[in-house]
Amino acid sequence: MWRGGATAASAARALRSRLLPDPTRHPATPLAPIASSRAASSAPSTAAADTVAEAAAAAAAVSQQAGSVSDALRHYGRCYLELSKARLSALVVATSGAGYVLGSGNIVDIAGLCFTCTGTMMVAASANTLNQVFEIKNDAKMKRTMRRPLPSGRISPAHAAMWATSVGAAGTALLAWKANGLAAGLAASNLILYAFVYTPLKQIHPINTWVGAVVGAIPPLLGWAAASTELTLNSMILPAALYYWQIPHFMALAYLCRNDYLAGGYRMFSFADPTGKRTAWVSLRNCLYMLPLGLFAYNWGLTSEWFSLEASLLTLGLTVGALSFVLEPTHKSARRMFYGSLLYLPAFMAGLLLHRLPNEQKEHNLAQTNELDGVLYGTNLQDEERARQKRENGKPSRVQSRPPVAYASVAPFPFLPVPIYVAPQGHEL
Q1: Residue 62 per-residue DSSP state
Q2: Cα-to-chain-centroid distance, residue 270
Q3: Were 300 and a residue from 41, 71, 234, 428 both cysteine, which residue would form a disulfide, CB within 3.0 to 4.6 Å?
Q4: What pLDDT does 35 receive?
Q5: 288-291 long-range CB contacts below 8 Å, 24 or more apart?
Q6: Rounded CA gap, 150 and 206, in Å?
Protein backbone atom coordinates (compact mmCIF):
# COMPACT_ATOMS: atom_id res chain seq x y z
CA MET A 1 0.00 0.00 0.00
CA TRP A 2 2.69 2.50 0.91
CA ARG A 3 4.67 1.59 -2.09
CA GLY A 4 1.74 2.19 -4.43
CA GLY A 5 1.03 5.58 -2.84
CA ALA A 6 4.65 6.69 -3.29
CA THR A 7 4.54 5.72 -6.97
CA ALA A 8 1.38 7.77 -7.53
CA ALA A 9 2.88 10.77 -5.76
CA SER A 10 6.02 10.63 -7.86
CA ALA A 11 3.94 10.46 -11.04
CA ALA A 12 1.94 13.54 -9.97
CA ARG A 13 5.11 15.52 -9.32
CA ALA A 14 6.51 14.61 -12.70
CA LEU A 15 3.31 15.74 -14.46
CA ARG A 16 3.29 19.06 -12.53
CA SER A 17 6.91 19.73 -13.40
CA ARG A 18 6.11 19.32 -17.06
CA LEU A 19 3.10 21.64 -16.99
CA LEU A 20 4.62 24.32 -14.63
CA PRO A 21 8.31 24.99 -15.29
CA ASP A 22 10.68 25.44 -12.42
CA PRO A 23 11.14 29.20 -11.67
CA THR A 24 14.78 28.65 -10.75
CA ARG A 25 15.50 27.25 -14.21
CA HIS A 26 13.11 29.50 -16.11
CA PRO A 27 13.12 32.86 -14.28
CA ALA A 28 11.67 34.84 -17.16
CA THR A 29 8.04 33.74 -17.22
CA PRO A 30 4.95 35.60 -18.41
CA LEU A 31 3.63 35.82 -14.79
CA ALA A 32 6.45 38.13 -13.58
CA PRO A 33 5.24 41.29 -15.42
CA ILE A 34 1.74 40.71 -14.12
CA ALA A 35 2.96 40.39 -10.53
CA SER A 36 5.13 43.49 -10.84
CA SER A 37 2.29 45.49 -12.33
CA ARG A 38 0.02 44.46 -9.47
CA ALA A 39 2.67 45.47 -6.93
CA ALA A 40 3.14 48.81 -8.69
CA SER A 41 -0.59 49.46 -8.74
CA SER A 42 -1.00 48.54 -5.08
CA ALA A 43 1.80 50.95 -3.94
CA PRO A 44 -0.15 54.22 -4.64
CA SER A 45 -3.28 52.81 -3.04
CA THR A 46 -1.28 51.96 0.09
CA ALA A 47 0.23 55.47 0.22
CA ALA A 48 -3.20 57.06 -0.21
CA ALA A 49 -4.59 54.91 2.56
CA ASP A 50 -1.72 55.97 4.82
CA THR A 51 -2.36 59.65 3.99
CA VAL A 52 -6.05 59.32 4.76
CA ALA A 53 -5.24 57.59 8.02
CA GLU A 54 -2.81 60.33 9.03
CA ALA A 55 -5.35 63.05 8.15
CA ALA A 56 -8.03 61.28 10.18
CA ALA A 57 -5.67 60.97 13.13
CA ALA A 58 -4.74 64.67 12.90
CA ALA A 59 -8.41 65.66 12.72
CA ALA A 60 -9.18 63.51 15.72
CA ALA A 61 -6.32 65.10 17.65
CA VAL A 62 -7.46 68.64 16.75
CA SER A 63 -11.03 67.81 17.65
CA GLN A 64 -9.92 66.31 20.96
CA GLN A 65 -7.79 69.39 21.71
CA ALA A 66 -10.65 71.75 20.82
CA GLY A 67 -12.97 69.72 23.01
CA SER A 68 -10.54 69.90 25.91
CA VAL A 69 -10.17 73.69 25.48
CA SER A 70 -13.93 74.20 25.37
CA ASP A 71 -14.36 71.96 28.39
CA ALA A 72 -11.70 73.92 30.29
CA LEU A 73 -13.32 77.24 29.38
CA ARG A 74 -16.71 75.94 30.44
CA HIS A 75 -15.30 74.56 33.69
CA TYR A 76 -13.48 77.73 34.73
CA GLY A 77 -16.31 79.95 33.57
CA ARG A 78 -18.70 78.05 35.83
CA CYS A 79 -16.21 78.26 38.69
CA TYR A 80 -15.76 82.02 38.24
CA LEU A 81 -19.52 82.46 38.16
CA GLU A 82 -19.96 80.58 41.43
CA LEU A 83 -17.03 82.32 43.09
CA SER A 84 -18.52 85.70 42.15
CA LYS A 85 -21.92 84.75 43.64
CA ALA A 86 -23.65 85.99 40.51
CA ARG A 87 -27.07 86.58 42.06
CA LEU A 88 -25.71 88.50 45.04
CA SER A 89 -23.45 90.54 42.76
CA ALA A 90 -26.42 91.29 40.49
CA LEU A 91 -28.30 92.67 43.51
CA VAL A 92 -25.31 94.88 44.36
CA VAL A 93 -25.20 96.13 40.76
CA ALA A 94 -28.94 96.86 40.84
CA THR A 95 -28.61 99.02 43.96
CA SER A 96 -25.59 100.81 42.49
CA GLY A 97 -27.46 101.49 39.26
CA ALA A 98 -30.46 102.81 41.19
CA GLY A 99 -28.16 105.16 43.08
CA TYR A 100 -26.69 106.39 39.77
CA VAL A 101 -30.13 107.16 38.35
CA LEU A 102 -31.23 108.92 41.55
CA GLY A 103 -28.07 111.05 41.51
CA SER A 104 -28.54 112.10 37.89
CA GLY A 105 -30.27 115.20 36.61
CA ASN A 106 -32.96 115.39 33.95
CA ILE A 107 -30.90 113.23 31.58
CA VAL A 108 -29.27 109.97 32.66
CA ASP A 109 -25.91 109.25 31.07
CA ILE A 110 -26.42 105.70 29.77
CA ALA A 111 -22.74 105.15 29.00
CA GLY A 112 -21.76 106.30 32.48
CA LEU A 113 -24.41 104.05 33.99
CA CYS A 114 -23.07 101.03 32.09
CA PHE A 115 -19.48 101.74 33.10
CA THR A 116 -20.52 102.19 36.74
CA CYS A 117 -22.48 98.94 36.80
CA THR A 118 -19.63 97.05 35.13
CA GLY A 119 -17.06 98.34 37.59
CA THR A 120 -19.35 97.60 40.53
CA MET A 121 -19.94 94.06 39.27
CA MET A 122 -16.20 93.41 39.01
CA VAL A 123 -15.48 94.72 42.49
CA ALA A 124 -18.38 92.73 43.97
CA ALA A 125 -17.12 89.57 42.25
CA SER A 126 -13.67 90.16 43.73
CA ALA A 127 -15.05 90.66 47.24
CA ASN A 128 -17.20 87.53 47.08
CA THR A 129 -14.29 85.45 45.78
CA LEU A 130 -11.98 86.62 48.56
CA ASN A 131 -14.72 85.81 51.06
CA GLN A 132 -14.76 82.20 49.86
CA VAL A 133 -10.96 81.98 49.79
CA PHE A 134 -10.85 82.89 53.48
CA GLU A 135 -13.71 80.54 54.41
CA ILE A 136 -12.75 77.30 52.65
CA LYS A 137 -12.70 75.18 55.81
CA ASN A 138 -15.91 76.69 57.14
CA ASP A 139 -17.76 76.21 53.85
CA ALA A 140 -16.65 72.56 53.73
CA LYS A 141 -18.54 71.91 56.99
CA MET A 142 -21.87 73.39 55.84
CA LYS A 143 -24.36 71.56 53.66
CA ARG A 144 -25.35 74.81 51.97
CA THR A 145 -21.80 75.66 50.84
CA MET A 146 -19.80 72.42 50.67
CA ARG A 147 -20.37 72.10 46.89
CA ARG A 148 -18.78 75.47 46.10
CA PRO A 149 -15.69 75.44 43.82
CA LEU A 150 -13.09 75.78 46.58
CA PRO A 151 -14.38 73.26 49.14
CA SER A 152 -15.12 70.75 46.38
CA GLY A 153 -11.62 71.13 44.92
CA ARG A 154 -12.72 72.23 41.46
CA ILE A 155 -10.35 75.18 41.59
CA SER A 156 -7.28 75.96 43.67
CA PRO A 157 -7.17 78.78 46.27
CA ALA A 158 -4.21 80.41 44.48
CA HIS A 159 -6.15 80.50 41.23
CA ALA A 160 -9.18 81.98 42.96
CA ALA A 161 -7.04 84.59 44.71
CA MET A 162 -5.45 85.61 41.40
CA TRP A 163 -8.89 85.91 39.83
CA ALA A 164 -10.14 88.06 42.72
CA THR A 165 -7.11 90.36 42.65
CA SER A 166 -7.19 90.93 38.90
CA VAL A 167 -10.92 91.53 38.60
CA GLY A 168 -11.00 93.80 41.68
CA ALA A 169 -8.12 95.95 40.45
CA ALA A 170 -9.67 96.18 36.98
CA GLY A 171 -13.08 97.20 38.37
CA THR A 172 -11.61 99.89 40.61
CA ALA A 173 -9.51 101.25 37.73
CA LEU A 174 -12.56 101.32 35.46
CA LEU A 175 -14.53 103.34 38.01
CA ALA A 176 -11.64 105.77 38.48
CA TRP A 177 -11.29 106.18 34.71
CA LYS A 178 -14.92 106.43 33.59
CA ALA A 179 -16.58 107.75 36.78
CA ASN A 180 -14.49 109.63 39.35
CA GLY A 181 -12.13 109.09 42.24
CA LEU A 182 -14.90 109.23 44.86
CA ALA A 183 -16.74 106.29 43.29
CA ALA A 184 -13.52 104.30 42.93
CA GLY A 185 -12.59 105.02 46.56
CA LEU A 186 -16.00 103.84 47.79
CA ALA A 187 -15.66 100.64 45.77
CA ALA A 188 -12.17 99.89 47.07
CA SER A 189 -13.12 100.64 50.68
CA ASN A 190 -16.19 98.43 50.42
CA LEU A 191 -14.09 95.57 49.06
CA ILE A 192 -11.67 95.89 51.97
CA LEU A 193 -14.50 96.17 54.51
CA TYR A 194 -16.25 93.06 53.18
CA ALA A 195 -13.24 90.80 52.62
CA PHE A 196 -10.95 91.81 55.48
CA VAL A 197 -13.32 93.00 58.22
CA TYR A 198 -16.74 91.40 57.79
CA THR A 199 -15.44 87.97 56.71
CA PRO A 200 -13.18 87.28 59.74
CA LEU A 201 -15.68 88.94 62.06
CA LYS A 202 -18.27 86.29 61.19
CA GLN A 203 -16.29 83.81 63.27
CA ILE A 204 -15.70 86.20 66.18
CA HIS A 205 -18.80 88.20 67.12
CA PRO A 206 -22.49 88.53 66.11
CA ILE A 207 -21.92 92.21 65.31
CA ASN A 208 -20.82 90.98 61.89
CA THR A 209 -24.45 91.29 60.73
CA TRP A 210 -24.43 95.05 61.30
CA VAL A 211 -21.03 95.41 59.64
CA GLY A 212 -22.38 93.47 56.67
CA ALA A 213 -25.35 95.84 56.56
CA VAL A 214 -22.92 98.76 56.18
CA VAL A 215 -21.25 96.90 53.30
CA GLY A 216 -24.60 96.48 51.58
CA ALA A 217 -25.50 100.16 52.03
CA ILE A 218 -22.40 101.50 50.23
CA PRO A 219 -23.17 100.49 46.58
CA PRO A 220 -26.03 103.02 46.14
CA LEU A 221 -23.70 105.72 47.49
CA LEU A 222 -21.14 104.58 44.92
CA GLY A 223 -23.68 104.99 42.12
CA TRP A 224 -24.77 108.42 43.37
CA ALA A 225 -21.15 109.58 43.61
CA ALA A 226 -20.45 108.34 40.08
CA ALA A 227 -23.37 110.37 38.73
CA SER A 228 -23.08 113.60 40.73
CA THR A 229 -19.42 113.54 41.95
CA GLU A 230 -20.60 114.35 45.50
CA LEU A 231 -22.69 113.01 48.40
CA THR A 232 -25.59 114.99 49.84
CA LEU A 233 -28.25 114.40 52.48
CA ASN A 234 -30.87 113.06 50.07
CA SER A 235 -28.35 110.53 48.76
CA MET A 236 -28.73 108.65 52.08
CA ILE A 237 -32.33 107.48 51.55
CA LEU A 238 -31.61 104.31 49.59
CA PRO A 239 -28.49 103.40 51.62
CA ALA A 240 -30.50 103.79 54.84
CA ALA A 241 -33.27 101.58 53.45
CA LEU A 242 -30.72 98.94 52.48
CA TYR A 243 -29.05 99.06 55.87
CA TYR A 244 -32.25 98.58 57.86
CA TRP A 245 -33.66 96.08 55.36
CA GLN A 246 -30.67 93.75 55.67
CA ILE A 247 -31.15 93.25 59.43
CA PRO A 248 -34.55 91.46 59.30
CA HIS A 249 -33.54 89.74 56.06
CA PHE A 250 -30.41 88.15 57.55
CA MET A 251 -31.96 87.59 60.96
CA ALA A 252 -34.59 85.40 59.34
CA LEU A 253 -31.92 83.60 57.29
CA ALA A 254 -29.70 83.05 60.34
CA TYR A 255 -32.62 81.61 62.28
CA LEU A 256 -33.58 79.28 59.44
CA CYS A 257 -29.97 78.07 58.98
CA ARG A 258 -28.98 78.21 62.64
CA ASN A 259 -27.69 74.64 62.88
CA ASP A 260 -25.79 74.98 59.61
CA TYR A 261 -24.10 78.17 60.81
CA LEU A 262 -23.20 76.46 64.08
CA ALA A 263 -21.58 73.61 62.17
CA GLY A 264 -19.60 76.09 60.09
CA GLY A 265 -18.32 77.97 63.13
CA TYR A 266 -20.06 81.28 62.42
CA ARG A 267 -21.09 83.47 65.35
CA MET A 268 -24.51 84.70 64.31
CA PHE A 269 -27.02 86.52 66.52
CA SER A 270 -29.23 83.43 66.55
CA PHE A 271 -26.34 81.41 68.02
CA ALA A 272 -27.35 82.33 71.59
CA ASP A 273 -31.08 82.57 70.83
CA PRO A 274 -32.50 79.06 70.36
CA THR A 275 -36.08 80.26 70.89
CA GLY A 276 -35.79 83.01 68.25
CA LYS A 277 -37.51 85.69 70.35
CA ARG A 278 -34.58 88.12 70.48
CA THR A 279 -33.94 87.59 66.78
CA ALA A 280 -37.57 88.41 66.01
CA TRP A 281 -37.52 91.58 68.13
CA VAL A 282 -34.38 92.85 66.39
CA SER A 283 -36.10 92.28 63.06
CA LEU A 284 -39.22 94.17 64.14
CA ARG A 285 -37.23 97.11 65.49
CA ASN A 286 -35.36 97.63 62.23
CA CYS A 287 -38.58 97.38 60.23
CA LEU A 288 -39.99 100.24 62.31
CA TYR A 289 -36.89 102.30 61.53
CA MET A 290 -37.78 102.13 57.85
CA LEU A 291 -41.27 103.62 58.23
CA PRO A 292 -40.32 107.34 57.89
CA LEU A 293 -37.95 106.88 54.95
CA GLY A 294 -40.64 107.56 52.37
CA LEU A 295 -41.56 110.83 54.09
CA PHE A 296 -37.91 111.84 54.26
CA ALA A 297 -37.49 111.14 50.56
CA TYR A 298 -40.37 113.52 49.79
CA ASN A 299 -39.31 116.24 52.21
CA TRP A 300 -35.73 116.23 50.95
CA GLY A 301 -36.81 116.60 47.35
CA LEU A 302 -35.78 113.16 46.16
CA THR A 303 -39.22 111.87 45.13
CA SER A 304 -42.78 113.02 44.70
CA GLU A 305 -45.36 112.79 47.47
CA TRP A 306 -46.79 109.55 46.08
CA PHE A 307 -43.67 107.64 47.02
CA SER A 308 -44.07 108.51 50.69
CA LEU A 309 -47.44 106.75 50.67
CA GLU A 310 -46.21 103.73 48.71
CA ALA A 311 -43.09 103.30 50.83
CA SER A 312 -45.12 103.49 54.03
CA LEU A 313 -47.49 100.77 52.81
CA LEU A 314 -44.59 98.53 51.74
CA THR A 315 -42.85 98.96 55.07
CA LEU A 316 -46.06 98.25 56.95
CA GLY A 317 -46.37 94.94 55.10
CA LEU A 318 -42.83 93.95 56.05
CA THR A 319 -43.47 95.07 59.63
CA VAL A 320 -46.54 92.83 59.83
CA GLY A 321 -44.36 89.89 58.80
CA ALA A 322 -41.81 90.76 61.50
CA LEU A 323 -44.60 91.11 64.06
CA SER A 324 -45.89 87.62 63.21
CA PHE A 325 -42.33 86.36 63.70
CA VAL A 326 -42.29 88.01 67.15
CA LEU A 327 -45.64 86.54 68.14
CA GLU A 328 -44.75 83.08 66.86
CA PRO A 329 -40.99 82.54 66.42
CA THR A 330 -41.08 79.45 64.22
CA HIS A 331 -39.43 78.45 60.97
CA LYS A 332 -42.68 79.07 59.14
CA SER A 333 -43.00 82.69 60.30
CA ALA A 334 -39.26 83.30 59.74
CA ARG A 335 -39.51 81.94 56.21
CA ARG A 336 -42.54 84.14 55.58
CA MET A 337 -40.66 87.22 56.71
CA PHE A 338 -37.62 86.20 54.64
CA TYR A 339 -39.63 85.94 51.43
CA GLY A 340 -41.41 89.18 52.26
CA SER A 341 -38.05 90.93 52.51
CA LEU A 342 -37.13 89.58 49.06
CA LEU A 343 -40.22 91.25 47.61
CA TYR A 344 -39.81 94.48 49.57
CA LEU A 345 -36.46 95.65 48.20
CA PRO A 346 -37.21 95.59 44.45
CA ALA A 347 -40.59 97.21 45.07
CA PHE A 348 -38.99 99.98 47.15
CA MET A 349 -36.32 100.68 44.53
CA ALA A 350 -38.87 100.63 41.72
CA GLY A 351 -40.96 103.22 43.56
CA LEU A 352 -37.89 105.41 44.08
CA LEU A 353 -37.03 105.33 40.39
CA LEU A 354 -40.62 105.80 39.27
CA HIS A 355 -41.29 108.87 41.45
CA ARG A 356 -37.80 110.35 41.49
CA LEU A 357 -37.20 114.03 40.94
CA PRO A 358 -34.10 115.28 39.10
CA ASN A 359 -31.13 115.97 41.30
CA GLU A 360 -31.35 119.75 41.73
CA GLN A 361 -27.86 119.97 43.13
CA LYS A 362 -26.43 118.38 40.01
CA GLU A 363 -28.48 120.69 37.79
CA HIS A 364 -27.19 123.65 39.78
CA ASN A 365 -23.64 122.40 39.47
CA LEU A 366 -24.08 121.92 35.73
CA ALA A 367 -25.47 125.43 35.37
CA GLN A 368 -22.54 126.87 37.29
CA THR A 369 -20.12 124.84 35.21
CA ASN A 370 -21.72 126.05 31.98
CA GLU A 371 -21.65 129.65 33.20
CA LEU A 372 -18.01 129.34 34.17
CA ASP A 373 -17.22 127.77 30.83
CA GLY A 374 -18.95 130.69 29.10
CA VAL A 375 -16.96 133.22 31.10
CA LEU A 376 -13.72 131.42 30.37
CA TYR A 377 -14.65 131.19 26.70
CA GLY A 378 -15.35 134.93 26.54
CA THR A 379 -12.08 135.68 28.31
CA ASN A 380 -10.23 133.52 25.84
CA LEU A 381 -11.85 135.35 22.95
CA GLN A 382 -10.80 138.70 24.40
CA ASP A 383 -7.26 137.44 24.92
CA GLU A 384 -7.11 136.22 21.37
CA GLU A 385 -8.39 139.58 20.07
CA ARG A 386 -5.76 141.48 22.06
CA ALA A 387 -3.04 139.17 20.80
CA ARG A 388 -4.21 139.68 17.23
CA GLN A 389 -4.17 143.48 17.63
CA LYS A 390 -0.65 143.31 19.09
CA ARG A 391 0.52 141.25 16.16
CA GLU A 392 -0.98 143.70 13.72
CA ASN A 393 0.55 146.73 15.52
CA GLY A 394 3.95 145.09 15.51
CA LYS A 395 4.03 144.66 11.75
CA PRO A 396 6.19 147.25 9.79
CA SER A 397 4.31 150.04 7.95
CA ARG A 398 3.85 149.55 4.23
CA VAL A 399 3.47 153.30 3.50
CA GLN A 400 6.53 154.95 1.92
CA SER A 401 7.34 158.57 2.93
CA ARG A 402 8.16 161.37 0.45
CA PRO A 403 11.75 162.35 -0.12
CA PRO A 404 12.95 165.45 1.77
CA VAL A 405 11.88 168.79 0.32
CA ALA A 406 14.38 171.58 -0.17
CA TYR A 407 13.33 175.24 0.11
CA ALA A 408 16.10 176.21 -2.26
CA SER A 409 16.85 174.21 -5.31
CA VAL A 410 20.32 173.24 -6.29
CA ALA A 411 21.51 176.06 -8.51
CA PRO A 412 24.34 175.89 -10.96
CA PHE A 413 25.86 179.07 -9.54
CA PRO A 414 28.46 178.83 -6.80
CA PHE A 415 27.47 182.10 -5.09
CA LEU A 416 23.99 180.84 -4.11
CA PRO A 417 23.47 179.46 -0.58
CA VAL A 418 23.45 175.72 0.21
CA PRO A 419 19.90 174.16 0.07
CA ILE A 420 18.18 173.46 3.40
CA TYR A 421 16.23 170.18 3.63
CA VAL A 422 13.14 169.90 5.83
CA ALA A 423 11.57 166.61 6.88
CA PRO A 424 7.91 166.20 5.93
CA GLN A 425 5.31 166.71 8.68
CA GLY A 426 3.00 163.85 7.69
CA HIS A 427 2.54 160.87 5.44
CA GLU A 428 0.18 160.45 2.63
CA LEU A 429 -2.00 157.39 2.98
Answers
A1: H
A2: 35
A3: 234
A4: 47
A5: 288/319, 289/244, 290/240, 290/241, 290/244, 290/245, 290/315, 290/318, 291/315, 291/316, 291/319
A6: 25
